Amino acid sequence: MNFFNFFQGWQPAPFTLKRPDAFTRRMNLPNKLTVSRFVLTVAFLAVMFSQTRYHETIALALFAAGGISDFLDGYIARRDKLITNFGILMDPLADKIMVCSAFIAFVGLKWISAWMVVIIVARELAITGLRLLAASKNVVLAAEGYGKHKTISQIVAIISMLVLAAYQQWGSLGQAVFGFHVFGHPWVESFTWLAVWVAVVLTLISGCLYLWRNRALYLDDM
Questions:
Q1: Residue ranges of the alpha helices (H) in the chain?
Q2: In CATH, which of 1.10.10, 1.25.40, 1.20.120, 1.10.287 is domain 28-214?
Q3: All residues at 6 or more sequence positions from 181 whose CB lies less than 8 Å from its CB, including other chains
Q4: Mutual angle of helices 85-108 and 29-48, in 10-degree steps
Q5: Scanning 38, 48, 52, 106, which has its CA 20 to 30 A from the CA of 100?
């Protein structure tokens, strides 16, 4: 039999690439806002270490956008009942990555003492480890109220530090709003260091409370 005649008229079965259901579902708006914070964090870091003119101001705008998205994703998810396991896990993770990236960048720029950032990063890593342990036991740990207060205090501290670094680029308006002196220093300088201390203390306290309240998760494995 001729080899080519054998295959003449033979056609392969049609091949259709099927995408998993998870990819066909549309991501809801709160989860899109959560994912956007990862993108904003990368852009923020790139700008912070660039030599672009007004890079502190640009970094401030990017971080402020991330902070606003943090508020909006939770608000919209609760309002429209769009709370998902993805959001429960990834929303606090996006917060941690955004905040820790900023503080670590500030250490590199010598804007803040390293020991303060060690406390902040250690707390976030410990809570992330606890959440991973909980997930291995099919338990989802959502962010709690005091954890959100901690995040807000961290965002305020970071924005304050960026304003302190950037306000002189804003001309007379920046000087008028942020540069007038209180006790011999621009008021924004005193406010910034107060905000940093508040953030460090709340970070430490909230982390200890979270570990204590969920101690059964890790004590059972000891």
A1: 3-7, 21-24, 29-48, 55-79, 85-108, 114-136, 145-166, 171-178, 187-213, 215-219
A2: 1.20.120
A3: 187
A4: 10
A5: 52
pTM: 0.80
Name the residue among 47, 21, 85 with its Cα closest to residue 166.
Answer: 47
- Tokens read off for 31: 């989860």
Beta carbons within 8 Å of 64's beta carbon, 6+ residues apart = 159
7 pLDDT band, cuts 50/70/90, is very low
CA 204 – CA 151 distance, rounded (Å): 12
Contact 38, 94 (CB under 8 A): yes
pLDDT digits (tens, 9 = 90+) for 115-146: 999 999 999 899 888 888 887 877 777 666 77
In angstroms, rounded to a whole number, what is the distance separating the alpha carbons of residues 213 and 207? 10
Biggest CA-to-CA distance, the chain: 102
Q: Dihedral of CA 71/28/38/206: which sign?
A: positive
Q: In the 8-state DSSP scheme, what is residue 169?
A: G
